[in-house]
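Ticket #4471: structure export looks truncated?
Reporter: QA, pipeline team
Priority: medium

Steps to reproduce: submit the single chain below to the structure queue and open the exported record.
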Amino acid sequence: MIVSVHLPKTAGNSLKEALKREFKDRLLLDYDDWAGYRSAESDARTAANAVAMRSRRDELLGSFDAIHGHFIADKYVGLFPDTRFVAFFRDPFQQTVSQYLFLLRIPQAREHPAVRILHDEKMTLQDFIIWEATKNPQTQCMGTVAVEDLAMAGIVEEYPRSTRLFQAIFGRALASDIFENVNSVRPEVGYPIDAELQRLITIHRAADIDVYRRAKDLFMRQAGRRGV
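Actual output as written to the record:
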């Protein structure tokens, strides 16, 4: 089973559409958790959903070849005879700004606690960066699965090359020309990061900075071995 962990704001919706095109009804989408947001409420939801999903083990094995969604990778650890984890990672400085602006754009999605709290408290970007509940979301979603244990690491900044690596590893083609949920006003060169933002993100996203560095190293090794 290919298990693709959609880390927040790492081209996961584009990847979702590419996976749907390739796997069709053999793809299960799992978006019921509040992954990337930690609270007693979200932890309880995560635990209950994990129990429910594990009760469907035989059904999942018979009906699906791949799973993709917002969840902590541990949800599927040890569930199948052969689980091959995949995740795409993004530069944490860009990911942090992108996630904040995304949450600002969806005030109507108040069923998600992160959206509701961010808007009710009128959080600034600086407030969001230091908010404990959303710190290091890429690391949060990996759970206990080490980057080095991934069957494949993709890099958002190398998205077309990452889709070719997916095909080289799994023998399944992914379209690289699908771009979903992209901020239409984002500068082509990326969001500007001034010195103060860089300082805050360096402090409060240190784990994600480390995970991203390790993911890039793995991506380069995997791509190099397969001539991608």
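Status: closed, not a bug. The export was complete when the record was re-opened. Leaving a note from the reviewer for reference: Residues 206-225 form the longest helix (20 residues).
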